[in-house]
């Protein structure tokens, strides 16, 4: 059996196991173990490699970023910082055509700079933004689609858990990956906002419930009003946290791990000042932080073992040779890679795709001359599109479960999120065509 056939068998077997419902970590360990055993015909070697992956896989100081940024995001989520951010954006942008949609994107952009988790953004703004948009005459499909679509900013704008996972798997600087995500992340937010304004201008029936809008126009509405001082007070906590974490990180004062620690402490101070940790909230935050962090770290151990197995089997080298001999060239390989990631996004979650594809694709991309920081931004963008595409679409299902309204179907949320998938694809093409968009700040 050739290396290429073996690689296809191992990767295909892994995807089948995941689709059968086996946990991705267990599937990675099982395929890695049997892959080494099959290639070397030596069960002792397979055991030693598994031991080394478990021992060395998460021993690095950088892995402390995971629980620290998760803790920071969860503390911010329970402190109503997201609600305050949306309220200010709502007041500032309400008179703009499609303003509440733009406000949702703007609030999500700021919230993303301190959470790093798309699902957290989707859950928070489903509770905050959807009822407010519906009350002001927006279609429920558009409101839920906007929340689901803009939630992907949580994984693009640093800090980002997907950036951390990619950095570990591809052995790249997490600090540089964070900085590389700034321009594409804010460009994505701008494209979302422009798209919403164009839809509100040229296809108002897709954005507004026109009948309800007419009724609201005949009624006297009492809109929220805030003074400049009140707006500053509501924005101060999140602005201070963003300045503390990202300013320290980009200014070179903190390493990513130190930034996570400072950010978690700052979020704790905010939560204490707002008295958000009572009624068992502190325990729930700590429990969820441990649960999420342990899950990710176990996955990284399994992925490290899987990556070593692929290297032992010679799979990345064999695939690189085939792609090179096929005459696809660097951008032909990139197009094929993006297509595979988008297809996997329809059936697997973001972390699983990274864990499966990065060990295979990163060495090939490097052989073709791609900067692995730039390649990482492309990968995260492509993977994030899977959060909005059926049948998996975890952000869509998060909105559905958080909203808990039987009148709102999953299909309608997918339909509302579809324009955002198109906007993400446009940004993905721009980042592919102009690498400096991801590397200019490094």
H/E element sequence: HHHHHHHHHHHHHHHHHHHHHHHH
Mean pLDDT: 83
Shape assignment: globular
- Biggest β-sheet strands, sense, barrel: none
Taken together, the total number of domains comes to: 1
Stretches where pLDDT is under 50 for at least 5 consecutive residues are: none
Q: What radius of gyration results from the CA coordinates?
A: 22 Å
Number of helices: 24
First-to-last CA distance: 43 Å
Q: Report the helical percentage.
A: over 70%
Write a structural description.
By secondary structure, this protein is mostly helical. It has one domain. Helices cover 79% and strands 0% of the residues. It is built from 24 helices and no strands. The protein has helices at residues 3-19, 24-40, 43-56, 65-78, 81-93, 99-115, 118-135, 140-150, 153-156, 161-170, 174-180, 182-202, 204-207, 210-218, 228-250, 256-273, 281-313, 315-325, 329-344, 350-367, 372-385, 394-403, 410-433, 436-439. The longest helix is centred in the C-terminal third of the chain and has 33 residues, at 281-313. The chain is globular. The model has no long low-confidence stretch (mean pLDDT 83).
């Amino acid at each position: 059996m050739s290396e290429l056939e073996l690689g296809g068998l191992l990767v295909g077997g892994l995807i089948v196991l995941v689709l059968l419902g086996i946990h991705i970590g267990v599937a990675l360990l099982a395929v890695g173990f049997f892959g080494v055993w099959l290639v070397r015909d030596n069960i002792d070697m397979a055991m030693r490699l598994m031991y080394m992956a478990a021992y060395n896989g998460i021993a690095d100081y950088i892995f402390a970023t995971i629980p620290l940024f998760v803790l920071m995001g969860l503390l911010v989520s329970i402190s109503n910082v997201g609600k305050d951010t949306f309220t200010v954006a709502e007041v500032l942008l309400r008179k703009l055509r499609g303003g509440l949609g733009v406000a949702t994107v703007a609030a999500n952009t700021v919230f993303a700079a301190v959470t790093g988790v798309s699902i957290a953004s989707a859950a928070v703004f489903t509770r905050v933004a959807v009822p407010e948009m519906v009350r002001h005459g927006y279609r429920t499909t558009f409101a839920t689609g906007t929340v689901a679509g803009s939630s992907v900013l949580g994984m693009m704008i640093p800090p980002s858990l997907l950036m951390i996972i990619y950095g570990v798997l591809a052995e790249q600087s997490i600090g540089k990956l964070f900085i590389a995500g700034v321009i594409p992340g804010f460009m994505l937010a701008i494209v979302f906002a422009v798209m919403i304004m164009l839809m509100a201008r040229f296809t108002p029936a897709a954005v507004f419930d026109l009948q309800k809008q007419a009724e609201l126009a005949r009624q006297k509405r009492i809109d929220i009003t805030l003074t400049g001082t009140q707006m500053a007070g509501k924005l101060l906590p999140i602005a201070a946290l963003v300045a503390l974490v990202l300013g320290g990180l980009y200014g070179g004062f903190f390493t990513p791990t130190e930034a996570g620690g400072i950010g978690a402490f700052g979020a704790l101070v905010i939560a204490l000042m707002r008295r958000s940790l009572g009624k068992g909230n502190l325990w729930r935050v700590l429990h969820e932080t441990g649960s999420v962090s342990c899950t990710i770290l176990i996955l990284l151990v399994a992925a490290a073992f899987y990556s070593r197995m692929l290297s032992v089997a010679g799979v990345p080298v064999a695939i690189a040779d085939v792609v090179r001999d096929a005459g696809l060239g660097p951008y032909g390989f990139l197009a094929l890679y993006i297509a595979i990631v988008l297809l996997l996004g329809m059936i697997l979650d973001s972390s699983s795709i990274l864990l499966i594809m990065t060990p295979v694709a990163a060495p090939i991309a490097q052989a073709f001359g791609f900067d692995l920081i730039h390649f990482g931004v492309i990968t995260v963008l492509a993977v994030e599109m899977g959060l909005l595409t059926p049948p998996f679409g975890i952000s869509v299902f998060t909105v559905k479960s958080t909203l808990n309204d039987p009148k709102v179907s999953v299909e309608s949320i997918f339909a509302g999120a579809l324009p955002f998938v198109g906007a993400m694809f446009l940004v993905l093409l721009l980042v592919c065509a102009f690498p400096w968009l991801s590397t200019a700040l490094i």
